[in-house]
Protein: Methyltransferase type 11 domain-containing protein
Organism: Gordonia namibiensis NBRC 108229
Amino acid sequence: MGFYDDRVVPHLVHVACGMSALTPLRERTCAPLSGRMLEVGFGSGLNVGLYPDTVTEVAAVEPSDVGWRMAADRVAGSAVPIERSGLDGQELPFDDDSFDAALSTFTLCTIPDLGAALAEIRRVLRPGGTLAFLEHGLAPDEKVRTWQRRLEPIQKRIAGGCHLTRDVRAELTTAGFALGTVDSFYQPGVPKPHGALSLGTAQPA
């Protein structure tokens, strides 16, 4: 990583994804989780404190040392044991069927090889395990999609490779997940090209 991506982007992501308006959405996303959990794109730990009591331990995958340092106080104060257990969501250092659940919030937009990462998450989830996600991506309206395509090159440069046009539902289905309930909506107070959200669950098919 260069200086900007390594040192600046984690702070930008913390501010953009740490808005208080997102806390209820994060709580909804975390609600179905239980057992041993994998969190891909742990970042600065913005989901810590929102995990339900049914979660017993968390394996945190986070490539940024800066992000992990920013999460230190949250990790130390967590009621659930959290261990940094990997650096790359595209190559997870875990055995097959290792986890009861997985969590991804505002992460799938940035992973360079999303197909590889989803295949890895599917591999390490036990049969019947749940992937819970809160992601932004391709908007349902063509006018908004047009703006997303225009803005995406800039977005990728300033936000660490973040894509605006990834179709979360389609990517999950292609990767072999069966979608559960998925709620798609525009986040209030955010420009629609950046605020087209999907919140839901999926299971290995």
User: Anything to note?
Assistant: The beta strands are 35-40, 55-61, 82-86, 99-105, 125-136, 177-186, 196-204.
